[in-house]
Amino acid sequence: MDHSRRHMAPETRETCRREDSVEVILEVRKAGFVLKRSSDIVYKPDDKLIYEIDRKTVTGNTDRFSLVFRKPK
Fold first, then answer.
1. What is residue 52's predicted lDDT score, i.e. its pLDDT?
2. Low-confidence ranges of the chain (pLDDT < 50)
3. Which of 1, 31, 12 is nearest to 49 (CA)?
4. Domain spans of the chain?
């Protein structure tokens, strides 16, 4: 699970602790893992995805993604 950043958005000082879920999936698949499932259980539609996660107005209200991978046998 990690804090979401918009797909293909550049990493800035404000978003350096956020991850692009598509990039994460591609990198982990490249390492040989298979995406088993994803979840939006921690989806927060009000998060603008542009602010540092420790800002007082953002903390506890960040959009996050959760991915489960498996290593093929």
1. 85
2. none
3. 12
4. 2-70
